[in-house]
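pasting input
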Amino acid sequence: AQSVTQLGSHVSVSEGALVLLRCNYSSSVPPYLFWYVQYPNQGLQLLLKYTTGATLVKGINGFEAEFKKSETSFHLTKPSAHMSDAAEYFCAVSDPGAGSYQLTFGKGTKLSVIP
Amino acid sequence: DSGVTQTPKHLITATGQRVTLRCSPRSGDLSVYWYQQSLDQGLQFLIQYYNGEERAKGNILERFSAQQFPDLHSELNLSSLELGDSALYFCASSETHGGGTEAFFGQGTRLTVV
């Protein structure tokens, strides 16, 4: 069984500061890893994903994440926060062998950006 | 706009009732996934269909059922509704059923059971 832990249900940063959202996973096989963003009253939008290859993945809106197998982590970062980054962020995993886009999500981290 | 359309956007119904949520996937996408988002359970995978066939099943209650029609739209049927079924129900679609292909999410149907 897979599981995802997002440390911190709520993170506040100042505008222009580094954004770091933490995600650790548990999986019996190396999973596919995803970060999604959800704005109020909206669906989920894919920020970035890791399947194979380079462990540093760049996504949309200036976000990136690094897959660290030894730490079972996939933390999301952005060098400089913008007011428009305020949203809820979800880390998710899927089993490459399952042949399905069945995602296991973390509980989410709500990001607030302080002007 | 993800290209995935869910109707209705909001639904209020009484306990014991039955409702149907509808999802139209992006053009060309063969896979449809249903997820439930609630405050206590978070985002949970319910069920997946691929080209009309059930592909994977997650934490879906027996009171819930789904199907995918020949035109690839999907419906999620929820019956004998309970207060705890109040949640945001998302549909997502992807081209294939592979684990690394991107799935695009609709804006969800917010179900309130009173």
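fyi Chain A touches chain B through 28 residues (CB under 8 Å).
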